[in-house]
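ARCHIVE CARD
CATEGORY: sequence design from structure
SOURCE FIELD: tokenized fold
FIELD CONTENT:
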């Protein structure tokens, strides 16, 4: 089973590479990511979070089927923003309010390589943006003020040393 990497692992701050090959190996990776996400009670997981530097993430909200986004591109974001408390499986125990656009449009490929477009708002839009950031090497703590980020990292270090 795949392990989720935590802050400090360099793969989390690197830009992920395009997925070039679709097939059983990719399907197995997605299945293992799904198991790891469920094990750690997440609602989204990007491949870099399991030390795989590919442009791939999954989202599973309550009572909805698993969504797979391969080689995604956010094509539009709303002007309207919202603030919401976010956590991250790569920062266990750390939660902060993050301001993001309220809605997004995204283009991606599915598990078979077929292209699709999706308009999302609310929690789905937020999770898509959070996971997309991972593909760009951006962490949710990069979306908060420098002062809050310093405090967050100090708090995170304390959590690790407990």
């Amino acid at each position: 089973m795949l392990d989720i990497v935590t802050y400090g692992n360099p793969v989390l701050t690197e830009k992920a590479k395009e997925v070039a090959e679709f097939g059983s190996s990719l399907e197995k990776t997605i299945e293992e990511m799904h198991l790891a996400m469920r094990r750690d009670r997440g609602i989204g997981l990007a491949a870099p979070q399991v030390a795989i530097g590919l442009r791939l993430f999954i989202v599973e909200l309550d009572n909805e089927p698993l969504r797979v986004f391969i080689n995604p591109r956010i094509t539009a974001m709303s002007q309207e923003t919202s603030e919401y408390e976010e956590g991250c499986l790569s920062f266990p125990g750390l939660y902060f309010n993050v301001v993001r656009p309220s809605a997004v449009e995204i283009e991606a490929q599915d598990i078979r390589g077929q292209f699709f477009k999706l308009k999302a708002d609310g929690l789905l839009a937020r999770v898509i943006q959070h996971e997309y950031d991972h593909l760009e090497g951006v962490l949710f703590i990069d979306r908060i003020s420098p002062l809050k980020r310093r405090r967050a990292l100090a708090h995170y270090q304390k959590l690790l040393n407990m």
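CARD ANNOTATION: The two ends are 26 Å apart (CA to CA). The beta strands are 44-46, 56-59, 67-77, 81-87, 95-101, 103-109, 115-121.
SHELF: design records, drawer C
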